[in-house]
Amino acid sequence: MWKAPLVIITIISFLISAGKEKDPFQWPKYLSEWALFDGELSALKPIQTAIPYDVRSPLFSDYAHKQRFIVLPEGTQMGYHPKGPLDFPEGAILVKSFYYPADFSKPESELQVMETRLMVLQSGAWHAASYAWNREQMDARVAIGGSGQTVQWKDNDGKQQTLNYAIPNANQCTNCHINNGVVKPLGITARQLNHNGTFEEWQTHSLITGFPNNDLFPSMPDYQDPTTGNLEDRARAYLDVNCAHCHRPEGPANSSGLYLQYASQDKHQLGIMKSPVAAGRGSGGRKYNIVPGKPKASILLHRMESDDPGVRMPELGRQIPHQEGIELIRDWIKSMK
Predict the structure, then answer these.
(1) CA-CA distance, 6 to 89, in Å (whole number)?
(2) Residue 108, in any domain of the structure
(3) What is the predicted pLDDT for the residue at 215?
(4) How far apart are CA 59 and CA 224, in angstroms?
(5) Is residue 164 domain-shared with residue 244, that is, in the same domain?
């Protein structure tokens, strides 16, 4: 079993003790105070004891690249869960950094790191906040009220792109991560982690317990890779990752009746020939969320295509349309009989 560095143990102890005071949680001012990276901070080299991971189908975040890892307190393990997020011990830290290579055709080219999001389990509750990186890429400061700055990159077609990147505030973090009134992690689920031998490696290193007695772990395809699933499965995976954190019975958009989880079987709840509850101008004059065979008549696709803050979906986490995702959902709707 690996051991957490002393500085992280000290911070975790401080946060747990802070939970007993009037202020339930206090964030260190700078990311460097967490000692989560080795060497120069902007190199994004996790400490040796970090547990890196990737997800099967990633959330779209304005084309930002992401780095993910977990830090566990010494002597603790994660617990397997077949449906929701994995179970984590008190003091666990989830770390996700968002960055842009200067040239997307050279992913290791000069990086501009925009933010590092942390989720910390303290006193039985998850706390989430983002650290905004300075322009000098020397450190990142906690951004409870949100933040943002301009970023530029050259895309895979060689075109120069510019974006006013937005960092969510703490309330927005909560809005996406709320589940039945409780803040929980999103992407770190069995369905998302069941690839590249992740579970087998974690089990080998005694990092996780509670596996079922069979190998039938939940799974879903990579929506970006046609070899991993058929068109419908990949489209459903896309909606699950990008929309279902709100559009589910336990999520903040539950009153819409539009439920987009990958495992959902109800076609009406999925939006097929379903009228919106209260779309307002977001409907664009359309009557149904999904009209089989007619992408242009479907509200769901209309809102994905929009960059209007009052129309676009998802509401948070993206400012520009995801062209590849739009094409996938358009093709899926076209294929419906």
Answers:
(1) 18
(2) yes
(3) 67
(4) 11
(5) no
